[in-house]
Write a structure and sequence with these properties.
With 462 residues, the protein is mostly helical. It is built from nine helices and no strands. Helix 4 packs antiparallel against helix 5. This is Secreted protein.
Length: 462
């Protein structure tokens, strides 16, 4: 029996050792790329937040400083011009034959104010843009102004054909002027004021939206900036430990540049918050208030002439004068005589001009206003004793001069407020111009530094 020897089983093939080093080598550049991508995304988020803040602030400054804000000022001037036109016609009609050239001066000023009102309407029409509702309101004012001018022309013609004593025009003249002044007071002035209100609402809404958004954007810049700095620092620490090298100068530069970009963005956003607040509250609001106060004051002096011109409505015009006086500087009083006595002794004023007349720089306005009220009291005292001619002379002389002085002082305050408004808008826009100039270079520079800091390490694995 033959025995076949059993050959030994072949040895099992040896398994190759896993390429630990090669796999590890492949994971390092992958991790570096991931960290670099995260840092780049954080930087993009930072720059996006800064750009959003600049855009938001720019839109707010544009609306307040270049769009709706100037439109409010233009329509406020329109209100003043319209009220002055009606006051001047009342002055002309209350004059007697011996006017000393005042009639010609009043009519010349009337033509100036009529031209200024038309220009203000054209400017408001242009600033209205595509707002059809506002354009229709402006067109309505233009149409109404045409009807008013026709009535005024008729009243002036009838007045020139009559010879009457000062303060005693014929009933025909008075009837036509009543139609004209009612049209102005009940239709044109409310429409002009509505234009101001509409534009003012846009300004207030824009400021509220911008002022509410910018702090949120500022917080987003802080969060995105800290995230970007954290990513850059972690990337540097990882590269330093993994490659046993000191920190790379390029990444250090990128980190410092990122910190600088974040600080610059926050600075611009904060400055624009401050500039917007200054432009709105210390500039725009005061300019609008003072423009409105000038218009009310001008309407007041028209009520003085209408008080002398229209005996049947004299009590109504006196009450309107008191009401407008209290709107400007409020003092508790039940009659005009009591108001004019109390306002001379008052030390603290409310009303429209109260907040605007705080400080020594506004004292000339207050002094001129008090002299104007004194002159009005003298005029009414003469009228009360039946000396209408003397009252008219005081109205066209002392009262008008006192009002002109008061209005001039008010204009000086308004010009200072307008300067504050324009300066704040300009400074805010300059800050944004600097941001838009620097931001692209900062983005490109940091991106280059990040690439220079990472690329040499990645090349070691090629």
């Amino acid at each position: 029996m033959t025995v076949t020897p059993i050959s030994p089983a072949p040895p099992a093939p040896r398994q190759a050792a896993p390429p630990v080093r090669r796999r590890a080598a492949r994971s390092v550049p992958g991790r570096v790329r991931v960290l670099t991508g995260v840092a780049a995304a954080a930087l993009a988020l930072l720059f996006a937040a800064v750009a959003a803040g600049g855009t938001t602030a720019g839109d707010g400054l544009r609306v307040i400083g270049r769009d709706a804000g100037p439109q409010v000022v233009a329509t406020s001037g329109l209100y003043f011009g319209l009220s002055d036109m009606d006051a001047l016609i009342a002055d002309v009609l209350v004059m007697g034959p011996e006017d000393g050239g005042l009639r010609a001066k009043a009519l010349a000023r009337y033509e100036q104010q009529r031209s200024a009102a038309n220009l203000a309407l054209l400017e408001a029409f242009q600033l209205a843009g595509d707002d059809q509702a506002e354009r229709r309101t402006i067109q309505s004012v233009l149409d109404g102004l045409g009807r008013y001018e026709q009535l005024v022309a008729r009243a002036l013609l009838l007045d020139s054909q009559s010879s009457h004593a000062a303060g005693d025009p014929p009933a025909s003249v008075l009837g036509v002027y009543r139609d004209a002044t009612d049209l102005m007071r009940q239709v044109l002035l409310p429409q002009a004021y509505n234009l101001t209100l509409e534009s003012g609402t846009i300004v207030r809404r824009t400021y509220d939206d911008t002022a509410g958004m910018l702090p949120l954007v500022r917080a987003a810049v802080i969060v995105a900036g800290l995230l970007a700095l954290g990513c850059l620092l972690y990337l540097q620490v990882y590269l330093a430990r993994r490659f046993r090298r000191v920190l790379g100068l390029a990444l250090v530069g990128a980190t410092l540049a990122t910190a600088g970009a974040m600080a610059a963005g926050l600075s611009v956003i904060q400055r624009d918050i401050d500039f917007l607040r200054t432009a709105k509250f210390e500039g725009f609001d005061s300019v609008v208030t003072l423009a409105r106060a000038r218009a009310i004051g001008n309407s007041m002096q028209g009520d003085q002439s209408r008080f002398l011109l229209d005996k049947e409505r004299a009590d109504t015009y006196e009450h309107r004068f008191l009401d407008k006086s209290q709107r400007l500087m409020y003092v508790e009083a039940g009659s005009l005589a009591k108001y004019q006595t109390a306002v001379q002794r008052a030390e603290d004023f409310r009303g429209m001009l109260g907040p605007e007349l705080a400080g020594a720089t506004a004292e000339p306005v207050l002094d001129a206003y008090l002299r104007y009220q004194e002159a009005d009291s003298l005029m009414r005292a003469r009228a009360a004793t039946g000396r209408t001619g003397e009252a008219v002379a005081i109205r066209l002389g002392e009262v008008r001069q006192a009002f002109a002085t008061y209005d001039e002082e008010l204009v000086k305050v308004a010009e200072r407020k307008q300067s504050v408004f324009a300066s704040a808008v300009d400074r805010g826009e300059r800050a944004l111009d600097e941001l838009w100039t620097v931001l692209p270079f900062a983005m490109g520079g940091i991106g280059v530094l990040l690439a220079l800091g990472v690329w040499p390490r990645l090349r070691e694995y090629r």
